[in-house]
Q: What sequence folds into this?
């Protein structure tokens, strides 16, 4: 949750800035970011879509990568519900 709250003030940050601000140990932060990236809640321009298909790992995320919140995020359950109403 603390990671997501960082985006309330700035639309994007580097991984290093996020680590400095939260003081979360880098190995744990990379695990969190990896899960958020896989869920498409956040985005990273340096990581291409094909990396998600071949199982993105924490080691694929570098400290200088830019992370931004995904403005087009929808939970999969929400999408399924919307389809049933149409």
A:
């Amino acid at each position: 949750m603390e990671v997501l709250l960082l985006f309330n003030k700035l639309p994007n940050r580097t991984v290093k800035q996020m680590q400095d601000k939260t003081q979360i140990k880098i190995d744990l932060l990379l695990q969190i970011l990896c899960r958020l990236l896989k869920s498409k809640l956040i985005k990273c321009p340096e990581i291409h879509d094909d990396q998600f298909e071949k199982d993105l790992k924490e080691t694929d995320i570098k400290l200088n990568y830019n992370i931004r919140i995904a403005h087009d995020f929808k939970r999969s359950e929400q999408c399924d519900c919307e389809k049933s109403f149409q």
Q: What stands out?
A: Confidence is low (pLDDT under 50) at residues 77-86. Residues 26-38 form the longest helix (13 residues). The CA atoms of residues 74 and 80 lie 10 Å apart. The longest strand covers residues 66-69.
